[in-house]
Design goal:
There is one protein chain. The protein is mainly beta and 223 residues long. The protein has a domain at 78-222: Porin (Beta Barrel). The protein is built from one helix and nine strands, in the order αβββββββββ. An eight-stranded antiparallel β-barrel has the order 1-2-3-4-5-7-8-9. The N and C termini lie far apart (166 Å).
Amino acid sequence: MSQLSWVCLRLAAVGVLVVFTTPRPALAQGPTEIEVISEPPPQAEPPPGEPATPDPPPAEPPPAPPLPEVDKPKEPLGHLRVGGGIGLGFASDLITVGVSPQVSYIFKRIVEPGVSIRYTYTRDNAPLQSITWHTYGSSLFVRVFPIQQLFILVEGEVINTGSKQGGIRFPRETYGNLLLGGGFVVGVSKGVFVATSLKVPVLRNPFYPTAFPIISVGAGYGF
């Protein structure tokens, strides 16, 4: 081989070696994941030596206005009572039956003055001939209650009476008398009561010849 051919062969070998020894560029890498770590910002701390200011307390609501004073109902001085009674009187030969409506006013449940009107039928079985009377009258009375249900009675009355005996009518006469006694009152329902009394005439006259007792039973209503 000629010297020129040898030189060309060596140059070709050097060129091939250069090609294989030249560094190639790095292959494209896939996308790279980047981890981001975030931290909360540091909290601001009050400077040392200065305490934190507390929140002001909530405002108190204004006080409610005072309620107006309500006047208590005053207890009445007393109460009005209306009613009536039936009277029965007995003696050895005498019987009396009467009715007497009445109106009264009780003060503080202690004193009870009142007024009453009456009609009375009386029969006296005399030995010879019986005598009958038809009597009309009115009276003023006062009941005093030492305790709630029991009372003491004082009554003054004026009566007008006329008698009849054996078919003969006698002139009518007017008499007065004082009766003393007592009794008790029982409440039945609200405002309704029943009163029972026993009274004795103090004076003597043709109408009250003896001190025979008079028993009265009546009912009424208190307002």
